[in-house]
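Why do we bother with holo predictions? Because pocket geometry can differ from the apo form. Keep that in mind while you read this record for glycyl-adenosine-5'-phosphate.
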Amino acid sequence: MVKEQTTELQDIVSHCKKLGYIYQSSEIYGGLSAVYDYGPYGVLLKNNIKEYWWKAMVQMNENIVGLDSAIFMDPKVWKASGHVDAFNDPLVDNKDSKKRYRADQLIEDYIQKKIQKKIDKDVNKAHKRFGDSFDKQQFLDTDQRTIERTKKINGILSRMNKALNTGDLADLRQLIIDLEIVCPHSGSKNWTEVRQFNLMFSTQGGGATSEDVLYLRPETAQGIFVNFMNVWNTSRQKIPFGIAQIGKAFRNEIVARQFIFRMREFEQMEMQFFVKPGEQKKFYEYWKEMRMKWHLALGTPPENLRFHNHETLAHYADAALDIEFQFPFGFKELEGIHSRTDFDLSSHQELSGKKLQIQDIETKQHYVPYVVETSIGCDRMFLATLSQAYNIDLAPDSKGELKERVVLKLPPAIAPVKCAVLPVVRVNKALTKTAKKIFDEIKYSFNCQYDEKDAIGRRYRRQDQLGTPFCITVDEQTIEDNTVTLRERDTMKQERIPAEEIEKIVSKRVDMSSLLKQL
Ligand code: GAP
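The structure, written out:
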């Protein structure tokens, strides 16, 4: 039975802390803002998400190879990539509260709270009125009030994007003033000028002079670009081919909010696909569809995912979009797909003086390949996965009364613990001995847990909260006929199976290949 619910971000944050998924960094010292540590279950789930991505990219595609490049790179890399000069956020301070904000986020929040919310409310009202026959798109296209509101949003966004792209910070500030945006803390409209703030963290290299500045990479992609020739020369790949990498990235996000959505230290899973100039559009469309499939294979309802095309493009891109997910705080970017032209390789070729060109087999012409990139934050994917999985439904207690239960409906293939082995009572030594024996046999095949503490109902609840898809219960009958009950997390249905078949049955149901086969 499913209880109607809306998940708040705070529910997820508390759940993560309570269950050992995520802790704030340096918590005993008050906590370091926007930096988080993954606990015993968090690290397992995160590793499984990475494994699913890696297998989908590298194992499933003969023309994609892996890489693990260093975090520190020659500072010239960041000059060529444009990060030294242009990797900035526009910041504005409120003079009364002394709080600092990202100007574009203040404007986007205004749109969300003051306009979009009203559209959503009207859509919901109309949905209730018309029931199943309701056509959302038709409503959005024809309802006069909604059309006016959408027009207003588009007007604000287009002025904001123009100001951002042309570096017109005065107009960005004017937009905040024209919209009468107030500081959420002081309630005042007393804003400073808008200034640009570079997001890269820097540190000193060996000599500790100003020339020895080293940056902590703000994206993993540049490690792939500067290794392009190394991989080309050693991997026997032909164009088109890709290089995939998972690794840490660092950004000095001034306004870091929303838990692990925007962090200062985070992990990216990026793939650069090198193609012939002129073929980028075809592969952009291909990767757009492939990446959406990857998300959908996890069982995420399609209505919680959407494409968002970038209206204005960065100077190096000829197409770009985000895959957005419906987080508890609204639809937000989860992954980016960018057609980056030959900008990065050409810039590195120019600044390094090293040729980053290959020869076309047919025309014999030399050219710098174009790049289509897919880039997803591992932590953001973690948050999306938990937001999707977090459910409160009703389950019978020991007296058969329905009580609320918190359950993480994680896809079994990426759940941290696949199976818990539970003797029905602790006092019966024959049961605990048998249960331990079963645990020791199946632990070679997948991650499982043995638990004999507390009443069986409480142990089920604990495994539900952890997201464990299967529980094996060992009872009196097990001693007689060597069968156990296999309980499924979401339906709570139990089936009796022979103990010697546990490994085979559970392995099949938690196998990651079931996800990969859908791609
Ligand atoms: N190489 C392209 C690139 O880095 P991006 O849109 O800046 O593009 C890609 O970042 C993805 O990395 C985002 O879609 C998001 O999932 C993740 N990401 C970016 N900044 C992040 C942050 N501060 N905290 C967590 N994840 C972040």
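The longest helix spans residues 103-130.
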